[in-house]
Amino acid sequence: MQSKTTTTVMLGVAQTLAWASSYYLPAVLAGAIGKDIGISTSTVFGAFSMALLVAAGIGPFAGRLIDRLGGRPVLIASNVVFAAGLAALSQSTHASHVFVAWALMGLAMGSGLYEAAFATVVRLHGQDARRAITGITLFAGFASTVGWPLSAYLESTVGWRGACLAWAALHLVIGLPLNVLLPRAARADQASQEATVANKGAGAGLAPAQPRRAAFLMAYVFAVTWFISTAMAAHLPELLLASGATLAAAVGIAALVGPAQVVGRVIEFTFLKRAHPLLSARLATLAHPLGALCLGLLGTSATAAFAVLHGLGNGILTIAIGTLPLLIFGAEGYGQRQGFLMVPARIVQAGAPFLFGIAVERWGDGALWFSAALGLSACLALVVMTADMRNAPLVAEGH
User: In sequence order, which residues have a C-beta less than 8 Å from that of residue 115 and are 6 or more positions away?
Assistant: First the structure.
């Protein structure tokens, strides 16, 4: 029987590859793709946004398959589709080809990124999956650290087409074998019985009428935090420039976000491992607003503090996306539920660079007050969820 640690490492490495070759690919290659094909860079990013919408649509279906069959066959299929999408992108000569290739990539992203990996470990380990979820994000936190330099090196040596083919090959020679070696899940009926036993106590703090509200609140928190994360990924250097930082300082400070995300996950893995996931999530949603407050009050001298605080919170919130549904609703039907909860997040993620770009254009670094307000609203939603769980037993006693 494969150990949980081994499974976590294998999924972590495979996730690093999946994120590096999809989500972090356009930042490096979009310009070269557009120039070679004769389309604007924004058109390439438009195809990427469409891929995120495809991922939102396929997510619940992929989650339901993982609930029934386990994650192994779904993740194996995602490697094949990733490779096909990257190969198709490498052969593109027209804008329509780019959109078709990214549509394929969207299918793979919806069935092969974090939600699928989290559902896989929950299907294998039930309520004991929290540390495995954290471990997977620790590995994949380095996806941009690995992906951006490697994509840039490949583009400079073999061109963007060769870079896409190289990433496709890595899916077949690294990602695919790692997912093939994952343990097989128990049959769906057996897993359902085990989950029923394991779920005793999971979600016990919710009165019968409250799970629906908890699901809406959770979907809102995930959507807001992904909006902020994607907006910062697209516009952070520009925001730092607007706050008075030099170009070199803005780029260097923006680079602190990635390591800070990993540090945040290490903090969750160590100091917060015994804390309630709702407490960890509430603290994490406050990190971005606190950073924005520091930047607003102290100006350029606080730019590094803002980037670090944003990264710390974002790193912990990535884990919360996997652990909160497990805590509130339990392991049974986790994959499909996770897919539905992430649909709003994927949709707003697709529009975040454009929408927040308008805010930056209009308000400059004042746009951070908008993102800070969103972060505070996510914290408020988590406070309401916490209150529901505390008050539910009293409600139940009154019936």
Answer: 59, 62, 63, 321, 322, 335, 338, 339, 342
Q: What is the pTM of this model?
A: 0.86
pLDDT surpasses 90 at 200: no
- Residue 88 and residue 104 in contact, taking contact as beta carbons nearer than 8 Å: yes
* Residue 112 one-letter amino acid: G
3-state class of 276 per DSSP? coil
φ and ψ of 298, to 5 deg? -105, -15
Q: Where are the domains of the chain?
A: 4-193, 199-398
Go through 226-264 and write b for each residue having 16 or more CB atoms within 10 A of its CB, e for each that does not: bbbbbbbbbbbbbbbbbbebeeebbebbbbbbbbbbbbb
DSSP 8-class letter at 141: T
Residue found under tokens 């999946």: 18
Give tens-digit pLDDT for 59-102.
Answer: 999 999 999 999 999 999 999 999 999 999 999 999 999 999 99
Q: Is residue 396 pLDDT above 60, yes or no?
A: no
CA 107 – CA 210 distance, rounded (Å): 33
pLDDT of residue 205: 53
Alpha-carbon span 319 to 136, nearest angstrom: 9
Mean pLDDT for 248-266 is: 86
User: How many residues can be counted in the chain?
Assistant: 399
CA end-to-end distance (rounded Å), the chain: 46
> Is residue 1 exposed (0-12), middle (13-18) or buried (19+ Cβ within 10 Å)?
exposed
Domain covering 4-193, topology: Growth Hormone; Chain: A; (1.20.1250)
Per CATH, which fold does 199-398 belong to?
Answer: Growth Hormone; Chain: A; (1.20.1250)
